[in-house]
């Protein structure tokens, strides 16, 4: 059994993913104390919103299998420019998000940029 993780005060931004999975993902993050923001990568959300969301966030996560190349590149560029950490997730499934939420790297040093 994993120890309970506390992400109180952490603002997560999830970019991309499947729309119908956002509610359970938000619930999972919020149960651990994190604020959960989402941008769909430019499908319905305008791409111009992404820089502001990245600035507001502590850690940015995105599934490598369910995000456009352009959105992934934009996330990486914005994170490097703003000194933000990003975590590419193996898939858009909730299991990948849960693994990341319980990983020590998520709450590690703020100067760790992937």
Can you put this structure into words, describing what you see?
By secondary structure, the chain is α/β, with parallel strands linked by helices. The protein has one domain (11-107): 3-Layer(aba) Sandwich (Rossmann fold), CATH 3.40.50. The protein is built from four helices and four strands, in the order E-H-E-H-E-H-E-H. The protein has helices at residues 22-31, 50-56, 69-82, 94-101; strands spanning 11-15, 35-39, 59-63, 85-89. A four-stranded parallel beta sheet has the order 2-1-3-4, sandwiched between helices. Helix 1 (22-31) runs parallel beside helix 4 (94-101) and helix 2 packs across helix 3. It is globular and about 35 Å long. The chain starts with 10 loop residues before the first strand and ends in a 13-residue tail after the last helix. Residues 109-114 have low confidence and may be disordered.
Quick structural overview:
The chain is of the alpha/beta class and 114 residues long.
Topology:
Blueprint: E1 11-15, H1 22-31, E2 35-39, H2 50-56, E3 59-63, H3 69-82, E4 85-89, H4 94-101
Parallel strand pairs: 1-2, 1-3, 3-4
What is the highest CATH level, the class?
A: Alpha Beta
Low-confidence stretches: 109-114
Overall SS class: alpha/beta
What's the Cα radius of gyration? 13 Å
Order of helices and strands: EHEHEHEH
Oligomeric grouping of the chains: single chain
Number of domains: 1
CATH superfamily: Response regulator
Helices, by number, come to: 4
Structure summary, number of beta strands: 4
Largest sheet: 4 strands, parallel
* Morphology: globular
Span of the ends, CA to CA? 28 Å
CATH architecture: 3-Layer(aba) Sandwich
